[in-house]
Every structure is written in structure tokens, then in C-alpha cells.
Design brief:
Length: 190
């Protein structure tokens, strides 16, 4: 009985060390948020942002964590240089005054071992709105090239442009926008 107590205590300590939160740094070359909207009903247009940074922290044992993403709004890529400038004007992203878009969360939703959604606040043009990102995929494993643990996911949400003071040309250009964030993040080195 005397030997059992120290062994149980050691097992608890080793388990809590393993269950420590893990932080992953967002890898910008594989994290390019995009959005799509209906253009006069003719077609669905897609654009993306080319510069993204941030961190994801996951505490698997406690089934909680956080997500902080910063998108450089000036890195918008519509595929057309003139439209890149136009969409940065005051009627849309107003990048002269609001050069970044952020998504912040401390509410990761778990189903078993998998993260299935992230509840947080999306801030565009200084306006914050609650948004739930739904994950269609989530995977953590050793990165085959970097030889370090990495996590990735594809997250989506539908938001309204008018909620962020960007409703110009509604309803001809749809108010609803599908936001997709493919994200990859590498475990922070100790």
C-alpha cells in the first residue's frame, strides 16, 4: 500500500505534463482565407487574402483552447489589380484605416478528440460580430517534411457584409458571403 501511493502520484504528475496545452504557429503559405459572393446573380466570385498570421492553442485533456488569426486586409487578391484597389476603399474594407481583419476565440468545440467548431469574434473595419466557424476537417500529425507536429483544418462561416458596414451594392452583390479559412499550423518549438 505504501508503494502504491507514490506510483499513483507519479502517474498523475506525468499525465498532467503530457496534457499540457500545445501552441501551434499559423503557417502563412498554407493559410489563405477566401470569400465568395454572388455577383448580380451571374456568377459566384471568389477572392482571397495572401498574408495571414496567428496562433492556435489546444489543450486536448481539458478539451479547450484558443485561436487568434490576423489577416492582412491589404493583401487582398481578387485576381485583378484594379479591383484589389477598389475593394480596399472606404465602402468595403477601408484598409487605410483598418489594415487588418481578426478572428479571436477561446471556445473550441470538441466532439470526442476532434475539434468541430470554433466560436469567436470576427472583427472587420473595427466592428466585431460573433461568428461560428464550422470545421469540415481537422487533423494533427507529424509534418512529413518539417518533422514536427502540425495541425490543419478547413473552416467555414457565412457572414453578412452589412454587419461590417460593407453593404454597398446590396442586393445586386449578395449581402451574404461565404468565408472559408484553410489553416495549417506548426507546433511551436519549446
Amino acid at each position: 500500500m505504501k508503494n502504491t501511493l507514490p506510483l499513483a502520484f507519479a502517474a498523475i504528475l506525468s499525465g498532467s505534463a503530457i496534457a499540457a496545452p500545445t501552441t501551434y504557429v499559423i503557417e502563412g503559405s498554407h493559410t489563405m482565407p477566401r470569400f465568395e459572393y454572388s455577383h448580380f446573380g451571374y456568377s459566384t466570385q471568389q477572392s482571397r487574402f495572401d498574408k495571414t498570421s496567428g496562433e492556435i492553442t489546444i489543450d486536448r485533456a481539458a478539451k479547450k483552447g484558443s485561436l487568434n488569426i490576423t489577416i492582412d486586409a491589404t493583401s487582398i487578391n481578387t485576381g485583378y489589380a484594379l479591383f484589389n484597389q477598389h475593394i480596399q476603399d472606404k465602402d468595403f474594407f477601408d484598409t487605410a484605416n483598418f489594415p487588418t481583419i481578426t478572428f479571436q476565440s477561446e471556445d473550441l468545440v470538441f466532439a470526442g478528440e476532434q475539434i468541430t467548431a470554433v466560436n469567436g469574434k470576427l472583427t472587420i473595419k473595427g466592428i466585431s460580430q460573433p461568428v461560428t466557424l464550422t470545421l469540415s476537417s481537422f487533423l494533427c500529425m507529424p509534418h512529413p517534411m518539417l518533422k514536427r507536429e502540425a495541425c490543419g483544418a478547413t473552416a467555414t462561416a457565412t457572414v453578412k457584409r452589412s454587419d461590417f458596414n460593407m453593404g454597398k451594392h446590396t442586393p445586386y452583390v449578395s449581402d451574404e458571403v461565404l468565408l472559408t479559412i484553410p489553416v495549417e499550423a506548426i507546433k511551436q518549438e519549446d
